[in-house]
Amino acid sequence: MSERLKIFLMLVPALLVIGLLFFGGLFIGLMRSFNYMPVIGLTDPDLSAYLSVFTDREFYLSFLLTFHIAFTSTVISTVIAVGAALLLRRHFLGRAIVNFLFQLNLTIPHLVGAIGILYLFSQSGSFARLAAHWGMIASTSDFPALVFDPYAVGIILQYVWKEVPFIGVIVLANMQTIGEDYESVARSLGATRWQSFRYVLLPLIFPGMLSASVMVFAFTFGAYEIPAILGASFPAALPVLAYRKYTDVDLAARPEAMAMAIVIALLSAVMIYLYLRYSRKRIRG
Amino acid sequence: MTHVSIQSLTKVYPGAREPALDKLSLEIESGELTAILGPSGCGKTTAMKMIAGLLAPTSGDVTFDGRSVLADKPEHRGVVMVFQNYLLFPYMSVADNIGFGLKMRKAPKPEIERRVADMLELVKLPDLGQRRPSELSGGQQQRVALARALIVQPKVLLLDEPLSNLDAHLRIEMRDLIRSLQQQMGITTIFVTHDQEEAVVLADKVALILDGTMKQFDRPEEFYKRPVDEATARFFGGRNFVQGQLKNGVFESGLGKLAVSEQSTVGNGEGAGTLTFRPENVHLATDHSQPNTLPANLVKQIYLGTQTRLQLSIGSHEIEAICNPNEVEGLINEQEILVTIPADAVWLLPS
């Protein structure tokens, strides 16, 4: 048996899982989004669900909100993570402990983080009560709305809290592999500390940084639970909106939910493609 | 043209007991090519990084034309370091790599393009500007690294093991290129190497570092003729060391009596000492007509291609000689022969 065939056969179980569960699910979803649901008597495929999605104002508001959540939390997380990795690659007293603490919340589920944000940042949360107790605000209701708010601050905070160590660990490993000699070359050629970061280290860590931030973007764009717990009810994030349609008492709303899910997947793919193209051009020139 | 003075430069890394480099002192004349020579881990690269400002010394000073540069940031020192593994920026074209230093100085684009083209000509790679470093051979990458350093017209050029990653034939080509560019541009250059042949062929002066300490700083030929101690002599291929007594210009040892010229004992008085002489200065003789001719027993011959190494037993000592293979044709092991060790080819190690 040739080596190639052996490798292919060993990959078959994993390919079956991906093929059946992912592409199978996608196929069923696609059929339903075209109004093909024989269970409830819909047997003539059409584009009415997509038309309904694209003519709904709430869909556009939800899209903008979801994009804002995904983009802002990805950018903030990446910037903080790169800064943290730059510090953590240096030798200092207690580095091992700081490194451990930095990575600690990788093990904590998103849901637990969301509840933490709720307890800390909501208007009935700890910070609001402390602010009121110390007389910084008259009552807890004067505390700025950081949860269930239209700007999704709470959601973004939760994502940043959770994703900084994720991107940071990848970028730090990348930096340690690269070492400091490239920057030394740049410095001796006349680059300032900032220039050697901007023109040398950043392009070198870029592939790792990009992969990590794309994963974060894709996840935050399509994730349901955090916007469901910490988000405002209108406009809701796209996955929340899709889920609402899916669980609508009227089964006829299901094709619309599926159309929305397909659109979310497509939009996510298009935006990742644009992000990759744009950032590659900007960073590597 | 910059005069470089390195004064008692010392580096002790945090947590280390021994210094990586201990009190290195060198005076390097303007436009001179100096080699820092030593085995791996002796502190050579540490010294370079401190001169370049990439590492802070524990103590000591580095001055350029009499001015201390320790407080200057690396980008303001005017020192460019070319690393052993070239470290070309992999995501940039060859031209962008070479123009990097000028871009950092915010030079106008047309000037960068013109000077990059000149540099590509100088290092004989005129058509490769648009290639990526990964598309170049090791020798070509080395040339690009050199061009990238020279384009900024540094006061001091530092080369870290510049030839060690190259094939034998490329080494000679690159060696000649480095020498001619350095002389053409008159840049004070320091390079580190573990290869004594490389140091001798390329450098005006050589600083030998062993175990973090500088042993000798001299013209290359001095290391062969007048090494400061046995370790230095051994590093340069010295094999013959004989203990004995110097009395009235004659060295008495297990070899017998050897006349020693005046210049071979500079810095030494009469009395006990160690005499050394290089294997290539031990000549085969046919009779006793020359002074310092001694009877020897041929223990072993090792054919090395262009040379033959002979192990000889003289009195209570074993010594080595290197001869032309034609000279030793017909000799057999255990044969009694005569060898001459010229009085001016021996050196009494300073006590």
Give the structure's gist in a few sentences:
Chain A is mainly alpha-helical and 285 residues long.
Could you describe the 3D structure shown?
The complex is a heterodimer of chains A (285) and B (351). Chain A is an all-alpha fold. Chain A has a single domain, classed as MetI-like fold (Orthogonal Bundle), CATH 1.10.3720. Chain A has twelve helices and no strands. The mean pLDDT of chain A is 91. By secondary structure, chain B is α+β, with helices and mostly antiparallel strands. Chain B folds into two domains: 222 residues, P-loop containing nucleotide triphosphate hydrolases (Rossmann fold); 111 residues, OB fold (Dihydrolipoamide Acetyltransferase, E2P), CATH 2.40.50. In chain B, helix 5 links the parallel strand 7 and strand 8. In chain B, helix 2 crosses helix 3, helix 2 packs parallel to helix 4 and helix 3 packs across helix 4. The longest helix of chain B has 18 residues. The radius of gyration of chain B is 24 Å and the shape is elongated. Chains A and B meet through helix 8 and helix 9 of A and strand 6 and helix 2 of B.
Topology:
The complex is a heterodimer of chains A (285) and B (351).
Chain A: H1 3-33, H2 48-54, H3 57-88, H4 95-104, H5 110-121, H6 126-133, H7 153-178, H8 181-188, H9 193-222, H10 225-230, H11 238-246, H12 254-284
Chain B: E1 4-11, E2 21-28, E3 33-37, H1 44-52, E4 59-64, E5 67-68, E6 79-82, H2 94-104, H3 109-122, H4 138-150, E7 156-160, H5 168-185, E8 188-193, H6 196-202, E9 205-210, E10 213-218, H7 220-225, H8 230-235, E11 240-247, E12 250-253, E13 256-259, E14 271-277, E15 283-285, E16 293-303, E17 308-314, E18 317-323, E19 336-340, E20 346-348
Parallel strand pairs in B: 3-8, 3-9, 6-7, 7-8
Antiparallel strand pairs in B: 1-2, 1-4, 4-5, 9-10, 11-12, 11-14, 12-13, 14-20, 15-19, 16-17, 16-19, 17-18
Helix pairs in contact in B: 2-3, 2-4, 3-4, 4-5
